[in-house]
Design brief:
globular, 301 residues, 9-stranded antiparallel beta sheet, AraC-like DNA-binding protein/predicted transcriptional regulator YdeE, 39% helix, HTH_AraC, Homeodomain-like_sf, alpha+beta, 11 helices, single chain
């Protein structure tokens, strides 16, 4: 049923392996065993964009990060990502971000980078594997303390949502929000993974948030439609599961961690929850970090 989700995801993976020299549509179609026309039609149907435009957007976005993070010549970056000249690169950059590569390098600001497409999810995997599911024993959630210094949260807080899926269905553009935050990744608070989700509490209601943690003294730009909020220093109880296979085990791992996180009594460790002025955070990086829910606590009086 979802055969093409998996095949288009393979096309995306091949492109992402090396954006500078990604395989051609003809090469990918031969590997998949379908015509180039049919492959590109299915790619567009599932991603909403042509393969050519996807490659272009990802290349210009990766080039922007190299402008921001390296001292390489603009011409060398242009050639590396497949542009015929610095002039062609400048025209493309202007079209994508409304400023020149030189201007961006001189003063990097939040810009809407295209993010990696994902069209083959754990849901699709479970449908494919439902008749031959394996039995896997996943470990219990680990619990530990972690101190996070005072910081700023830049992002969106939505009191009308209380989970990841509901947040994106509630009028927020995942590609635009995630891409803009990706362009701010160099400001990430040390010790954090980058973009984070989580929960906040307002007048007895629980809302959902998505954004990035930056240093407390950050005084740079705040993207349009996002807020910048000061969060005090705190200890956090971290409910954690180590790296796992995203497609096979994501749902089960999240259930294991959240079952403990939302039912744990911190008094066992001499703490109480401290979520009035602070926020709960999620860390979700399956293959590299794992999954965690972080809830702020303070010592019992």
């Amino acid at each position: 049923m979802y055969e093409w989700n998996e095949m288009v995801q393979r096309m995306i993976d091949w492109v992402e392996e090396d954006l500078a020299v990604s395989p051609t549509l003809l090469e990918m179609s031969r590997h998949l065993g379908y015509s180039p026309y049919y492959c590109t039609r299915q790619f567009h149907a599932l991603t909403g964009i042509t393969l050519r435009d996807y490659v272009w957007q990802r290349r210009i976005g990766r080039a922007a990060l190299e402008l921001r993070d390296t001292d390489a010549r603009i011409l060398d970056i242009a050639v590396k990502f497949g542009f015929s000249s610095q002039e062609a690169f400048t025209r493309a950059f202007l079209r994508a971000f409304k400023l020149t590569p030189h201007a961006y390098r001189q003063a990097p600001k939040p810009i809407p980078l295209a993010i990696r497409a994902e069209v083959f999810s754990p849901y699709h995997y479970l449908i494919r594997e439902r008749d031959r599911m394996r039995q896997v024993h996943l470990q219990e959630a680990e619990i530990r303390l972690e101190f996070i210094p005072a910081h700023k949260f830049i992002g969106i807080r939505d009191i009308g949502s209380n989970n990841y899926g509901g947040f994106w269905k509630n009028g927020h553009d995942c590609d635009e929000v995630s891409g803009t935050l990706e362009s701010m990744s160099h400001h990430t608070l040390p010790g954090q993974l980058g973009q984070t989700a989580g929960w906040f509490y307002q007048e007895g209601r629980k809302g959902y948030l998505y954004g990035i943690l930056v240093a407390a003294d950050y005084d740079g730009a705040v993207p349009e439609g996002m807020e910048c909020r000061d969060i005090p220093e705190s200890e956090y109880l971290v409910f954690f599961h180590p790296p796992f296979d995203y497609l096979q085990d994501n749902g089960q791992v999240m259930r294991i961690v959240e079952e403990v996180a939302w039912n744990y009594d911190p008094a066992v460790m001499g703490y109480v929850w401290d979520e009035e002025e602070k926020q709960d955070y999620q860390r979700h990086f399956p293959e590299g970090y794992g999954y965690a829910v972080l809830r702020p606590v303070r010592k019992l009086d």
